[in-house]
DNA sequence: AGACCGCAGTCAAGCGGTTAACCCAATACG
DNA sequence: CGTATTGGGTTAACCGCTTGACTGCGGTCT
């Protein structure tokens, strides 16, 4: 009841173990004739090499680890879902497998994030967007593991990252809104991430640069989940504190949708009374009423590229990887010139 | 720049390789004193055993594979998310890792579903709810791999499964609605799964058993995605074809929510004009207006148990595993007695 | 003709663990 | 006192594959 191994194939063909191995690894050192014989035997036995043995000998597990934050329904979040899909597809196309990890307390306390690489369980690790609180990431500073932050970064370290260019998205959003004539804008910011802060600062800078007075950009914090509820509450706060704003900019679509719901339930019309804009371009953004103007962020592509980079890092084809991917304005119906401009 | 291995530890302590190995595997054959010495060295070097080597020698990769269907946003689906979370948590608590797989064309054509087990990449496999079209699953019939269908089953095979008791949920739903006095009910069924068909048949049976006439249970097919849009369209069809129904039963919450949206946009009130009921109890069900009456399905628990079973199958502690997990009625505001009963 | 050079394979030393079988001193027992 | 048992380790044979070094050989170059 034993599984067939490489030596069964070798015996069957009357060649050595190494020959079979070389055939299986597409080495050019084997003649076409021998190769065909070996492959026929492989086919005949339905032979599949044992990945553990292969990994042990070759020092490559052909597996990457994807680490997602420990959030309530992280496996039901389109934001993470898109990135994971991108990673999975790229990995799969290159005969890699994806291992899942959740950065929960156990993961951090036991320092599993280091052990996973140390135990050679995976060739590389991808950390999807965690928050500023995840200071343990600093431990990777100085190590030369195939390690990549996906859609976030860690200041003052040499950690590799690939992420959406949030500053640029902020600029695009600011230009769109100011271009329509808005100059008193409420910003629902996400401040528990470095990218969220960058977005906030870049947005304010871009607005003032285009003629808004800094005090007319009213900032409120969304909340740590960046959820619809957070957006709802933030809009409530924003509108109760300053009635004069003509537009709300949210740091992601979910909060924008929550804000829109608040605005609607309070008898205001979007975009006639107030413009609302988000960031990310999640599928739902298309189906809100009115459709949500947002900055499209190619998260699937980001995931694919992240996986590509981490494999290059593993193979030593890359020393450091730091990339920014630009978003693009996606204009829908939730933004329009303010009332007094029409 | 080599990693520390088991022999480094052995040398440091002046014991043999096997002693270290036995300590690491909690063998009772080593004295407390020696054990302490070894563990101290392990600590000192920050040693972590190489999992590939361990897997090769011990014939266990301490990893399970989770296969999800190839759907549009499967990594962003609360239904799959809950199950995966359950699997992940159980696995993680037992020092297992989770490998991800998507049953896409490549996966099926290359018969990867067999290779993953053959190549010993994983100890067990969990297939989350696929449809009746996934006939390739039949190939597992007769094999004694640690293999489990999660929340579906395959008739006329010996494939192991663990799933929600959909027939029972159908009965509970039918009893709730008929109990309120409904006897003309529209059913939005999901018919591309065996469990969906069972649900439909059991629902009809339970209704007729409780006095409804079979022709008053109007059945329409939802669609292959079981999505809100599917529910929306199905409700439209249902209400245009038979105005007399007083309740709509959907085979899952998402379709129920879609149906509710249709009903609302057409000026009818839930539950005054028509009752609506779903199945699953996803988080959104709590936040609809009115709150959706549904049958709660413990998907997280299902995932946990599924992982437990598959590991027991792997260790040979279980020969076959076939389990049903019961749902429980979750009464909210979307169901009430029909107009003529009040 | 002799040195040299691929070409097509083979040899054998790993990769880093696990575990059945064995070994030896100390204790238990008749 | 001789023998069986047991606690605590060790030995060595794998697990199944990769890969650098080596070999034999026919053809090239000088």
Topology:
2 copies of one chain form a homodimer.
Chain A: H1 6-13, H2 17-24, H3 32-45, H4 51-58, E1 63-69, H5 78-93, E2 97-103, H6 105-109, H7 112-118, E3 124-128, E4 147-150, E5 161-164, H8 166-180, E6 185-189, H9 194-209, E7 217-221, H10 228-241, E8 247-250, H11 253-265, E9 275-277, E10 294-296, H12 299-314, E11 322-325, E12 328-330
Parallel strand pairs in A: 1-2, 1-3, 3-4, 4-5, 5-11, 6-7, 6-8, 8-9
Antiparallel strand pairs in A: 10-12
The first copy, chain A, binds a DNA duplex (30 and 30 nucleotides) through residues 3, 5-7, 15-22, 24-25, 29-31, 34, 49-50, 52-59, 120.
Oligomer: homodimer
The class by helix and strand makeup of chain A works out as alpha/beta
Secondary-structure element pattern of chain A, one letter each: HHHHEHEHHEEEHEHEHEHEEHEE
Q: Looking across the biggest beta sheet of chain A, what order are the strands in?
A: 2-1-3-4-5-11
Task: Provide structural commentary.
2 copies of one chain form a homodimer. The first copy, chain A, folds into 3 domains: 6-49, Orthogonal Bundle (434 Repressor (Amino-terminal Domain)); 63-164 and 300-326, Response regulator (Rossmann fold, 3-Layer(aba) Sandwich), CATH 3.40.50; 166-297 and 329-341, Rossmann fold (3-Layer(aba) Sandwich). Chain A is 41% helix and 16% strand. The first copy, chain A, is built from 12 helices and 12 strands. Chain A is α/β, with parallel strands linked by helices and 342 residues long. Chain A has a 6-stranded parallel β-sheet with strand order 2-1-3-4-5-11, with helices on both faces. Chains A and B meet through helix 4, helix 5 and strand 2 of A and helix 4, helix 5 and strand 2 of B. Strand 2 of chain A pairs antiparallel with strand 2 (97-103) of chain B. Chain A binds a DNA duplex (30 and 30 nucleotides) through residues 3, 5-7, 15-22, 24-25, 29-31, 34, 49-50, 52-59, 120.
